[in-house]
């Protein structure tokens, strides 16, 4: 699900990057949000929403259900589309476009280390771990602003 895009800088040089399309699950309880701990290719740890990349031919919902089964061994019910985030990966030339969906769990979560999930944790949006990706903070701030 990647395609090359380009943009011109102020110097007239075109930068080419690959777009990676993905999905993220925003799973909340009354007081917490579900985060997963992963590791960047350089070894740094980070916290993010569960989810991942879309495969060719997969719908966003199909991809999210597959990712949740693979990463956390659980089923989900998708309830609503939440904010979409865009960010550059540390690896050069890749920009990710993630669609986030509010979801509820059908079963308990079991992190799958074989899929790179080191840990899962329910955390208060007001007390996110320091290594939480800024995009997660943006999504949570946006959703909290929309809540009555």
TrEMBL record:
Q: Which cofactor does it need?
A: Mg(2+)
Q: Which PROSITE patterns does the record associate with it?
A: NUDIX (PS51462), NUDIX_BOX (PS00893)
GO terms of molecular function: hydrolase activity
Q: Which residues form the Nudix hydrolase domain?
A: 18-145
Record's keyword annotation contains Hydrolase: yes
Q: Which UniProt keywords apply?
A: Hydrolase
- PANTHER family, A to Z: GDP-MANNOSE MANNOSYL HYDROLASE, MUTT_NUDIX FAMILY PROTEIN
Name used for this protein in its record: NUDIX hydrolase
Lineage of the native species? Archaea, Methanobacteriati, Methanobacteriota, Stenosarchaea group, Halobacteria
